[in-house]
Amino acid sequence: MTFNDKLQAYLQLTRFDKPVGIELLLWPTLWGVMLAAMGHAQQQGATAGLPSLKIFVIFALGAIFMRAAGCAINDFADRKVDGHVTRTKGRPLADGRLSAKEAIAAFLVLVLLSASLLFFLPVSVFYWSLGAVILAFIYPFMKRYTHLPQVFLAAAFGWAIPMAYVAIQGSPDIWCWLLFVAYMCWTVAYDTQYAMADREDDLKIGVKSTAILFGRHDMIIISLLQTLFLLIMGVVMWHYFAPTTLGLTPVFGLALVAMMFAKQNSACASRQALACFQAFLANIWVGRYVFALIAIACLWTTFNG
What we know:
Layout: H1 3-13, H2 20-43, H3 53-77, H4 100-116, H5 123-138, H6 149-158, H7 160-169, H8 174-197, H9 199-205, H10 210-214, H11 218-241, H12 249-252, H13 255-268, H14 273-281, H15 283-304
Helix pairs in contact: 2-3, 2-7, 2-15, 3-4, 5-6, 5-7, 6-8, 8-11, 8-14, 11-13, 13-14
């Protein structure tokens, strides 16, 4: 195998060739960074505040590295079943282009790269980061033992939110955990859409998922999770922005997210694999839009009182 072939295999292992997953982790991490800075400023008696560029960049890089690490350990965990699934049979461990040892090595390198960022943060963030590493390592194996691997994925992806609050405020507060729960609701919903695309293959090979657990109630439960996300995010937005000149404007801004969810669910109602996968992909626009909504609100309140 040539150097270019090997490089391409590593890019596919870590999904750097498919940045959708990076965005699904990156944007919510930055929601946490922005809102933690907002809360910290309000605790200090200011109307609003923005995170430092250093904190912003560190958490953005950490999200990118840890998502790639998660993909590497996921492919290691699924190396014996990916070849039996239509969508994943071309992954580098499934087709033999990379070995299990190479996948573990890539995971460790990426975790170490992410860990190196902790030198620039308070030591308390290091202790919280151990939870992220543990969750990132165990969640790919959960589909062997529970029908709720999507919950473990949500916790692994969302752990950056309390870490951001620890880095900026010193400790997580109730608003941090509400944001975390909202994020978990959204993640379980979109990862169930993802699992719906693989449901038939998963049933054949004995892999568990929320799509299988929910069965014919899948769309109802996805809709309920999305509704919970909107309600909790509305409360969080109300807390941070209602006292400012923006009032409830950011809360009303979530109406567009409700429309995005309605469009996704309309597509998923057919339960066709491609339609479910396209609905899953559409969630990057939810992440982008909510980040833009929070960022604009934070900037507005910081510079306009």
